[in-house]
Design a protein that fits this description.
Layout lengths: L1 H6 L14 E6 L18 E6 L9 E5 L12 H15 L33 H5 L7 E8 H9 L8 H4 L2 E8 L13 E4 L6 H6 L7 H4 L4 E6 L11 E5 L5 E6 L8 H12 L10 E2 L5 E2 L3 E7 L3 H9 L3 E12 L2
Parallel strand pairs: 3-4
Antiparallel strand pairs: 1-2, 2-3, 4-13, 5-12, 5-13, 6-7, 7-8, 8-9, 10-11
């Protein structure tokens, strides 16, 4: 709903918390991305994109389109959709990008064989995620609805050398959070905190998905620390973040501390204390005429990541559709 209001020119909120990016939008009747709102029809197809090319090789583009909800059963909408997608990619190709050095993104001392973190897949290693790092003509699009993926593939916009990443489906879990989400107490011997920047190398070493410090520092985080330590600078034993798109991401529990319910505790802590900055405070009319805020969270989990799927389900998440991360050729 928020994306639709943005595409129709009615959203006055910030683009995304701390992202510093750019929004690209397009209505079906024109490739002019700045067409006035009064020329648009509320029933016209639309597409909206959030772009931050300084995030590379992390996700640089998120897109949403009207056909992703109740996708039409016939093909009459495809020519308009194709035109919208092509014009959006053309606009995105003009957004400046600067190559990143590998050392600023990953921890080169990552031990081999570590399990994937919350959203990732064990079948894709870090080298695959880094392949496009120095190629500015390729951008990583994230959390793309399967219906839009088909359009990108049909138009030949997907990097042919990115099959290991671009063909991997993720389940989109939606959490209806309402007003009743509360954090819960930790087992004895643990305390909540935030992820300290000094621990970013540890965080990056535990995931095969590349991360930049500049991205992590913008994101709400929660960490769990042991209290039975004599160290003046204790390291966290579990952590999680909310992504630029408000998704539950980079959730990790060290192997020695699994089975204690800490992943669920981290998630509830983030949902109850940090999601407020992402929600649009625009109450809708509910049953009985009362006004309610729609409060949702989401997570994208690889289809082979069974443990993380169980965490989402324990949080009341429902799997609604599949999304993909795709490397898109911009030129």
């Amino acid at each position: 709903a928020r994306a639709q209001r943005a595409a129709m020119g009615d959203d006055e909120d910030d683009e995304m918390h701390g992202a510093g990016g750019e929004r690209v939008q397009c209505a079906s009747h024109s490739v002019n991305l700045a067409s006035p709102a009064h020329e648009r029809n509320a029933n016209d197809p639309w597409i909206v994109a959030f772009v931050d090319r300084t995030c590379r090789p992390e996700t640089e583009v998120w897109i949403a389109a009207s056909w992703e909800h109740d996708t039409p059963t016939d093909d009459s909408w495809l020519p308009q959709a194709d035109s919208l997608v092509k014009s959006t990619i053309e606009r995105i190709s003009k957004v400046e990008s600067s190559p990143q050095e590998v050392g600023t993104v990953v921890n080169p001392r990552k031990p081999p064989g570590l399990p994937s973190t919350f959203t990732g897949s064990a079948s894709v290693d870090r080298d695959h995620y880094l392949q496009h790092l120095q190629n500015e003509q390729i951008a990583l699009f994230g959390s793309i609805h399967s219906s839009t993926c088909k359009i990108l593939n049909r138009l030949g916009l997907v990097d042919p050398n990115s099959a290991a990443v671009s063909n991997l489906p993720y389940r989109k879990y939606i959490f209806d959070l309402g007003d009743n989400v509360t954090s819960r107490s930790l087992p004895p011997g643990f305390v909540y905190g935030k992820v300290d920047p000094k621990d970013y190398p540890l965080v990056k070493s535990r995931t095969q998905i590349p991360r930049q410090d500049r991205t992590l520092v913008q994101l709400p985080s929660v960490a769990i620390y042991p209290t039975d330590t004599s160290s003046t600078t204790p390291q966290p034993i579990a952590w999680a973040f909310l992504g630029l798109d408000a998704s539950l991401t980079t959730l990790h529990v060290e192997p020695a501390y699994r089975g204690l319910g800490l992943a669920k505790s981290l998630s509830l802590k983030l949902f109850s204390e940090d999601m407020n900055i992402y929600w649009q405070h625009n109450p809708t009319t509910g049953e009985g005429g009362d006004h309610v805020d729609e409060r949702y969270g989401h997570a994208d989990v690889a289809t082979d990541n069974i443990a993380s799927q169980r965490v989402c389900e324990s949080l009341g998440g429902n799997w609604h559709f599949e999304v993909f991360w795709m490397r898109i050729v911009l030129a």
